[in-house]
Specification:
Number of strands: 8
Oligomer: single chain
Number of helices: 2
Strand content: 35-45%
Helix content: 10-25%
Shape: globular
Order of helices and strands: EEHEEEEEHE
């Protein structure tokens, strides 16, 4: 089972919504190896900002990636949604490119 440990006694599946709790998203994403388009990279969380039910997560994707990208994540989305969206991203090279995270259903 692929889980994110948000609390010593709690395991949350990757498809469970993480809400707008910045700490939960940080723990789920920071230092995670993901595929972005055709590349594999290590996520480094630079900052998380919230506005109502949306989180803006500033991420460095590659060591030389400064300042990186910003993930726009709504409260009802999950780690699975982030990982699946990143797989289909084609980066344009624009500084602080915004990637809108979409819902990906598991069957």
């Amino acid at each position: 089972m692929d889980v994110v440990d948000l609390h010593p006694l709690t395991a949350v599946p990757t498809n469970a919504p993480l809400g707008t709790e910045a700490d939960a998203w940080f723990m789920a994403l920071d230092s995670r190896v993901v595929r972005v388009g055709d590349d594999t990279c290590l996520l480094r969380i630079e900052g998380i900002h919230s506005c109502r039910s949306t989180l803006w997560i500033q991420v460095s994707l590659f060591e030389e990636s400064t300042p990186g990208v910003v993930l726009q994540v709504h409260g009802g989305l999950s780690l699975h949604d982030v990982v699946e969206t990143l797989k289909s991203v084609v980066l344009s090279g624009v500084p602080l490119e915004i990637i809108k995270i979409d819902r990906h259903w598991r069957v």
